[in-house]
UniProtKB/TrEMBL annotation:
The keyword Translocase does not apply. This is Zinc-finger domain of monoamine-oxidase A repressor R1 isoform 1. The keyword Cytoplasm does not apply. PANTHER family: PROTEIN COFACTOR ASSEMBLY OF COMPLEX C SUBUNIT B CCB3, CHLOROPLASTIC-RELATED, YLMG HOMOLOG PROTEIN 2, CHLOROPLASTIC. The chain crosses the membrane at residues 62-83, 127-149. GO terms for cellular component: chloroplast thylakoid membrane. GO terms for molecular function: zinc ion binding. It comes from the Eukaryota.
Length: 154
């Protein structure tokens, strides 16, 4: 945030490209983008701010600490659900099975409405396992977004 000079009312900054125009407003005397940047710099700064959502390295490390175990646990639960599918007579309301059954049921039931079982085989746990693994790799892998942000030097 860049403070505007007090007492002055400035019109919004309009950025024009070949395809469209983008207006950056001034709200309550606060400039949302610095006025000393020319339009190409403004758009690149604005895009960079949108892409990394202005996470500082400490926030990225906190997100890694929370998301890492969460995504790993759900990937493991979906693997257990895939194995449980092979044994349809398991008592899923009993203790050891309810640990994997209860957290995954809402996700799998909503997905089954969109993707019904194919040829009698429920593929939704496999799809969710793939999605969770993909998110884990994109966000927390060796070249994941949050890992790269946490390694930035300010």
């Amino acid at each position: 945030m860049f403070p505007a000079s007090r007492g002055s009312v400035r019109p919004p900054l309009t950025l024009k490209s070949k395809k469209s125009a983008f207006t950056v407003p001034y709200i309550s005397g606060i400039e949302l983008l610095p006025s000393n940047l020319n339009p190409p710099q403004v758009t690149s700064e604005f895009r960079r701010g949108l892409l990394v959502a202005d996470l500082d390295p400490a926030s990225a490390e906190l997100a890694i600490g929370i998301l890492g175990p969460f995504l790993s646990a759900f990937a493991f639960l979906f693997i257990i659900r895939i194995v449980m599918y092979w044994y349809p007579k398991l008592p899923v309301d009993k203790f050891p099975y309810v640990i994997a059954y209860a957290p995954t049921v809402p996700l799998l039931m909503s997905t089954r409405k969109v993707i019904p079982p194919l040829g009698g085989v429920d593929v939704t746990p496999v799809l969710w396992f793939g999605l969770v693994s993909f998110l884990n790799e994109i966000l927390l892998g060796p070249k994941g977004l949050l890992v790269l942000i946490s390694q930035q030097v300010s």
